[in-house]
């Protein structure tokens, strides 16, 4: 792709050499590669600028602008290798990093799994750089924050806390095998929590897009305020198995974690939910409801991820689960060679579950008794054998009775596996890009309705 | 909360136990209190010049207060599995972060460009942001007074700087430990790493404080996994050596090679352990486990920024709010429960000479005789509790809990070492087990999750032992306990004495937006909790 026109936004005062064009980065990396005295050298260069504004209790708190870059050098002698990173881009600093990685590489034991560096590759063209984001100023970010601050202050009974971060960055790699890849991107993320001053209600909404102009700040405020008001004075329900409607954020919170467990090697080694009792893996088995299809694809317009992994391997569309069947697991280059298959790892940071056509209203209308969940919080793995996680609902949890949302309920702790949950899938809605999973990444998930979701205790937290 | 993203980066879970490590007694900790020694190196003159340049630019730009930090942050990772090396990584980052207060509004700018022009550009960025965000008069920041320190020097006490140890020696130690664990029948996989941190931090502010400090931390994550031959089960024993602010000698003193076989056996034994029956049990929690429960259910809710709502959009608020209704009133636990904050215990990951406000931290009782007595504070936060300190005839001062995790991160309130003080009676973990009729003893930290106000939590562990009639009768698996914070701490009825005091730690406590990760330590004694709800996590469908 062609280089973006304005590589460094007008918003920043800080040193512009932290944002390099395709040709600048290539020239820089060629200089690094030429310094090498080792058998192999692979170098990765990344940098950029991020500006942020933070607010809470209806006032702006800490805010900043950070400009930074990093060079990562991996030197190799046969099966020995070592990595050194530096932010010192002076001639002496670069040379020091190269020499240090060489010195360490000579001393380390052989890595029997070492793979040769990749030759030049072809990559998909992904547009993820938008001038609307790169050119932001501190005043633009402050104005965006004021959409929520002013609305909450004017209401009189609300407190807004939020965070906006936006910036531009690039990533590039090169090696002495002729590999070169470059990817510029912008990102903008907005998360907002509105709490009611009586302490009984809390609502959350968010938006994430590489293109700042696509973020509707007022819509986010309206949604968080609506959730805060509606979640006041929650009632307790008995923990147990419930029909649950999970909004896209809540689905992403839990199902993204399933994507992280799709490692082929662990499955082959017998230490994964995808290991088959008796030996081998569960590839080819139906593991979830046939309505579920999960894939990764940096070029998907809702995902827009980096189209190559840390080794420079091209990342294309990979189907992981198709119509409920486990199609493949993620293979590193070493493990793929050992298992005589194609390497395909590194792309699960941009993951999407294909949506359906049910609306949230239809899901609610078809539910005699259930719970509507806005998002999940503090998810931690409890049992890797079943990808079982625990966590809690947060910032908008509601009771559904006879096809209607009737009241707010107290938050609930769950112990549930995305594998179990997606076997109990009843309805599926439109897939949306979500903004706030605990693991980050570009993730797109639909609203879903599932039965028998396992809540194990009640929380008094608002 | 501890941060999953960073767990993933290192491929290892949080932290661990000092059964094998050198347990530091409270008495020893007191004896080893850290103080700046006069022979420590002075601040590099060129660094000082750049700091002064930033402060002058800030004052010229209208800042009433400013501070600047120039830091070098280094990590060293040695990654192994089974009998082989996976990778060796050295990271190094150096730069400046400038914070300005203009008309009571903060701004922050950071850059790796350590020229005079670069430092001034970062300062101007901070000034521009502060001016764009100008606060109404009523909302403006007020800082508690702090005594300037014109020449503060601090270095983490250590015998061996890990960054001077040859890489071959580190790799050899790990691979020998792995090999010992692999000798155990059933143990198929071992992942072990070394993870070292060295932070060289220089701080200056417009009130005349200049400090130069070097912090060293060391950790050896180790995990042995046993797999049943038919792939019907696998179990891992991990979190065996606690991270600490200590030198390389700490890891060799923990004797990983000598202990690896035992850790492997513990993994293999878990395959044969009995699934727990759900119900209520008395829990005897070893310090290698309890530190994390303290971290989540005491250290986080007593952060003043959380109680005041400043973390509402991410880490959350606190059930311990508002402070006016809680200080001196709220009963957290029994009268023998005392929780102290400090930044001077040797080995504590939060231990430091001066914080990132330029404040010398003090020791303070967060919970005194079971009742809430204080919160963790910075200079910005201490004045919010002036009414309380004045009523107690205590000074309105910061407890020195201000911290930025890198030169590129703005500093804010982070936790000190937050520790459960030993009981008067000298009793041990074994004494607590002997006094228990029907219970479960838990060693090591496992999965952990707590809500955004720190009420409802669930904790797993590493090793679970069934107690009957004062004796351990066998190993259990699939154990997790659920709790409501005040109920749980008020169910504590026995605690260990000074000799049973140990510290637990994590390198990855996450908070703030943009997210920052800091290292935390919590000292504690083994403790017993009555009638706690235990669930079985071994679901099949």
| Global Rg of chain B | 24 Å
Largest sheet of chain B: 10 strands, mixed
> How confident is the prediction overall: mean pLDDT of chain B?
93
Question: Largest sheet of chain A, if any?
Answer: 6 strands, antiparallel
- Largest interface pair: A-B, 102 and 94 residues
- Calculate Rg of chain A over CA atoms: 24 Å
Beta-sheet strand percentage of chain B? Answer: 25-35%
Number of strands of chain A: 17
Mass-distribution shape of chain A: globular
Shape of chain B: globular
What is the structural class of chain B?
Answer: alpha+beta
Total number of strands of chain B: 26
Which short descriptors sum up this protein?
heterodimer; A: 462 residues; alpha+beta; six-stranded antiparallel beta sheet; 17 strands; 22% helix; 37% strand; globular; disordered N terminus; B: 541 residues; ten-stranded mixed beta sheet; eight-stranded mixed beta sheet; 13 helices; 23% helix
Give a brief description.
Chain A is α+β, with helices and mostly antiparallel strands. Helix content of chain A is 22%, strand content 37%. Chain A has helices at residues 22-34, 91-107, 131-134, 138-155, 217-230, 248-260, 264-268, 333-338, 360-365, 418-423, and strands spanning 40-56, 59-77, 80-86, 158-175, 180-196, 202-209, 241-246, 294-296, 318-322, 325-326, 350-353, 369-383, 388-401, 404-408, 412-416, 425-434, 442-458.
Helix-strand blueprint:
The complex is a heterodimer of chains A (462) and B (541).
Chain A: H1 22-34, E1 40-56, E2 59-77, E3 80-86, H2 91-107, H3 131-134, H4 138-155, E4 158-175, E5 180-196, E6 202-209, H5 217-230, E7 241-246, H6 248-260, H7 264-268, E8 294-296, E9 318-322, E10 325-326, H8 333-338, E11 350-353, H9 360-365, E12 369-383, E13 388-401, E14 404-408, E15 412-416, H10 418-423, E16 425-434, E17 442-458
Parallel strand pairs in A: 7-12, 11-17
Antiparallel strand pairs in A: 1-2, 1-4, 2-3, 4-5, 5-6, 7-17, 8-9, 8-11, 9-10, 12-13, 13-14, 13-15, 15-17, 16-17
Helix pairs in contact in A: 4-5
Chain B: H1 4-10, H2 26-31, H3 45-60, E1 65-81, E2 84-102, E3 105-111, H4 116-132, E4 152-155, H5 167-182, E5 187-205, E6 210-219, E7 222-227, E8 234-237, H6 249-253, H7 256-272, E9 274-275, E10 279-285, H8 287-299, H9 304-307, H10 323-326, E11 339-342, E12 364-368, E13 371-372, H11 386-391, E14 402-403, E15 412-413, E16 417-420, H12 429-434, E17 438-443, E18 448-450, E19 456-459, E20 463-468, E21 471-477, E22 479-484, H13 485-490, E23 492-495, E24 502-511, E25 516-524, E26 527-536
Parallel strand pairs in B: 4-6, 9-21, 10-17
Antiparallel strand pairs in B: 1-2, 1-5, 2-3, 5-6, 5-7, 7-8, 10-26, 11-12, 11-16, 12-13, 14-15, 17-20, 18-19, 19-22, 20-21, 22-26, 23-26, 24-25
Helix pairs in contact in B: 3-4, 5-7
């Amino acid at each position: 792709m062609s280089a973006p026109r304005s590589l460094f936004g007008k918003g920043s005062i800080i040193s512009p050499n932290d944002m390099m064009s395709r040709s600048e980065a290539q020239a820089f990396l060629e200089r690094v590669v030429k310094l090498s005295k080792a058998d192999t050298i692979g170098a990765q260069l990344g940098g950029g600028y991020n500006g942020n504004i933070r607010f809470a209790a209806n006032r702006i708190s800490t805010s900043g602008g950070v400009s930074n870059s990093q060079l990562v050098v991996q030197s190799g002698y046969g099966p020995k290798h070592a990595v050194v990173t530096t932010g010192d881009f002076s001639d002496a600093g670069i040379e020091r990093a190269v020499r240090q990685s060489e010195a360490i590489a000579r001393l380390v034991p052989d890595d029997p799994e070492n793979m040769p560096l990749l030759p030049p590759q072809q990559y998909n063209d992904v547009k993820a750089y938008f001038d609307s984001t790169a050119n932001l100023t501190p005043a633009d970010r402050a104005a965006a924050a004021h959409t929520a601050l002013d609305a909450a202050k004017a209401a009189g009974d609300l407190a807004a806390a939020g965070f906006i971060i936006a910036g531009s960055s690039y990533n590039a790699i090169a090696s002495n095998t002729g590999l070169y890849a470059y990817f510029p991107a912008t990102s903008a993320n907005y998360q907002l929590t509105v709490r009611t001053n009586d302490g009984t209600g809390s609502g959350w909404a968010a938006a994430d897009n590489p293109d700042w102009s696509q973020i509707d700040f007022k819509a986010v405020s309206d949604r968080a305020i609506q959730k805060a008001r509606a979640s006041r004075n929650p009632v307790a329900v008995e923990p147990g198995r419930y029909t649950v409607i999970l909004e896209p954020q809540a689905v992403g919170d839990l199902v993204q974690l399933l994507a992280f467990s799709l490692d082929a090697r662990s499955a082959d080694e017998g230490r994964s939910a995808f290991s088959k009792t008796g030996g081998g893996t569960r590839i080819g088995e139906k593991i979830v409801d046939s309505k579920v299809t999960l894939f990764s694809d940096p070029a998907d317009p809702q995902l827009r991820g980096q189209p190559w992994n840390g080794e420079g391997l091209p990342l294309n569309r990979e189907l992981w689960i198709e119509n409920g069947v486990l199609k493949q697991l993620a293979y590193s280059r070493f493990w793929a060679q050992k298992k005589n298959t194609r390497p395909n790892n590194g792309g699960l940071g941009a993951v999407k579950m294909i949506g359906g056509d049910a609306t949230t209203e239809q899901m609610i209308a078809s539910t005699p008794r259930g719970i509507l969940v806005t998002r999940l919080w503090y998810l931690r793995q409890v049992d890797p054998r079943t990808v079982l996680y625990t966590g809690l609902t947060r910032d908008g949890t509601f009771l559904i009775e006879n096809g209607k949302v009737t009241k707010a309920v107290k938050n609930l702790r769950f112990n549930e596996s995305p594998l179990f949950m997606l076997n109990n899938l009843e309805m599926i809605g439109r897939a949306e890009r979500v903004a706030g999973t605990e693991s980050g990444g570009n993730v797109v998930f639909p609203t879903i309705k599932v039965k028998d979701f396992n809540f194990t205790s009640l929380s008094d937290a608002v | 909360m501890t941060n999953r993203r960073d767990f993933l980066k290192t491929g290892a879970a949080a932290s661990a136990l000092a059964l094998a490590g050198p347990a530091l007694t409270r008495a020893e900790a007191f004896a080893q209190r850290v103080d700046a020694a006069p022979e420590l190196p002075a601040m590099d003159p060129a660094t000082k010049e750049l700091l002064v340049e930033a402060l002058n630019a800030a004052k010229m730009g209208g800042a009433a207060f400013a501070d600047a930090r120039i830091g070098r942050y280094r990590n060293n990772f040695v990654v192994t599995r089974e009998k082989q090396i996976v990778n060796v990584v050295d990271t190094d980052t150096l730069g400046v972060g400038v914070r300005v207060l203009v008309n009571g509004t903060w701004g922050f700018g950071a850059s790796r460009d350590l020229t005079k022009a670069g430092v001034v550009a970062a300062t101007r960025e901070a000034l521009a942001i502060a001016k764009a965000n100008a606060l109404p008069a009523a909302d403006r920041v007020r800082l508690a007074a702090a005594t300037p320190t014109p020449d503060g020097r601090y270095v983490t006490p250590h015998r061996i700087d890990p960054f001077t140890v040859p890489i071959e020696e580190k790799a050899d130690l790990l691979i020998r430990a792995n090999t010992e664990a692999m000798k155990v029948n059933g143990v198929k996989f071992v992942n072990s790493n070394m993870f070292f941190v060295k932070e060289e931090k220089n701080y200056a502010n417009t009130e005349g404080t200049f400090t130069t400090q070097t912090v060293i931390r060391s950790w050896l994550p180790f995990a042995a996994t046993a797999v049943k031959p038919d792939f019907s089960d696998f179990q891992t024993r991990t979190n065996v050596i606690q991270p600490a602010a200590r030198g390389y000698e700490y890891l060799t003193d923990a004797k990983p090679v000598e202990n690896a076989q035992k850790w492997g056996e513990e993994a293999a034994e878990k395959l044969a352990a009995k699934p727990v029956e759900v119900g209520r049990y008395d829990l005897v929690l070893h310090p290698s486990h309890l530190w994390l429960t303290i971290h989540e259910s005491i250290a986080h809710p007593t952060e003043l920024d959380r109680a005041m709502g400043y973390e509402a959009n991410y880490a959350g608020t606190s059930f311990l709010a508002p402070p006016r209704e809680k200080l001196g009133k709220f009963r957290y636990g029994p009268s023998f429960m005392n929780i102290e904050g400090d930044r001077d215990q040797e080995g504590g990951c939060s231990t430091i000479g001066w914080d990132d406000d330029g404040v010398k931290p003090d020791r303070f009782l967060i919970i005194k005789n079971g009742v809430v007595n204080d919160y963790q504070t910075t200079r910005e936060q201490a004045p919010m509790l002036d009414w309380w300190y004045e009523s107690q005839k205590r000074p309105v001062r910061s407890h020195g809990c201000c911290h930025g995790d890198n030169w590129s991160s703005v500093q804010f309130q982070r936790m000190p070492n937050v520790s459960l003080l030993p009981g008067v009676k000298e009793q041990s973990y074994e004494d607590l087990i002997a006094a228990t009729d029907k219970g479960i003893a838990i060693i090591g930290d496992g999965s952990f999750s707590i809500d955004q106000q720190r009420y409802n939590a669930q904790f797993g562990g590493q090793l679970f032992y069934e107690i009957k009639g004062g004796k351990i009768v066998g190993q259990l698996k699939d154990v997790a306990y659920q709790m409501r914070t005040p109920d749980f701490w008020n169910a504590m009825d026995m605690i260990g004495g000074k000799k049973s005091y140990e510290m637990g730690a994590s390198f990855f406590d996450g908070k703030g937006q943009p997210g920052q990760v800091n290292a935390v330590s919590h000292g504690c004694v083994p403790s017993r909790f009555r009638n706690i709800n235990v669930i079985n996590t071994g679901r099949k469908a």
